[in-house]
Amino acid sequence: MSGQEEIVEVQSSVLGTKEHWDDCYDREIECFDESGGDDVGEIWFGKSCLKAMTKEISQLSELNKETSKIIDLGCGNGMTLIELYKLGFRNLYGSDYSQKAIDLAEKIAQHHEYSINYFVDDITQLNGEQGEYDAVLDKGTFDAIALSENRDEMKALYKKYVEKVLKDQGLFIITSCNYTQNELTTYFPSSNFQYIKNVQYPVFKFGGSKGTSQTTIIFKYIR
């Protein structure tokens, strides 16, 4: 990429608060229980995005389905990890700062009888072991952090966490609906985050313009 694109931030929102997500997942747990496990709650960016992204991950030669240790940051209801488990991945972890999200994710995994590891963690506290994971996934968490009132500080801590827990040559796979590919490659510079590829999604047309509703980029982290 030549040059750098200025990152245009959206305004802060309730979506950037823990209270919102606690309330959201509290309601989704009720719906899950009442439906007998049929209602898993909202799937961020939709099922087609989820399936396209996880299929792309399953084809990455850098990852071994049995041994590669993968974490989904801000996993929510854990449906990204559910899809990866269906595709054969077995060393899966999900973290979220909402206990309610973890409760729901564990219920869904138990319903499917899938062995997935979930835990509560505020990633901005920089917990986690150095070089612990072969891949770090994010589908919407960076977006939510960018909606907080102190977004600059939170985004900087987020990046430090990713850099801390990823192994050298590990993969960082981020999906966003707020940031373009150029914006993400600007924020995660090539000196540490080597761009590998982006995930291709169906293109929509509106008012003579073309685009997609989300962006997924796969980086290789160089420590």
UniProtKB/TrEMBL annotation:
Keywords: Cytoplasm, Methyltransferase, S-adenosyl-L-methionine, Transferase. One of its GO terms (biological process) is methylation. Belongs to the class I-like SAM-binding methyltransferase superfamily. EFM4 family. It is found in: Cytoplasm. Signal peptide: none annotated. This is Protein-lysine N-methyltransferase CYY_009019. It comes from Polysphondylium violaceum. S-adenosyl-L-methionine-dependent protein-lysine N-methyltransferase that methylates elongation factor 1-alpha.
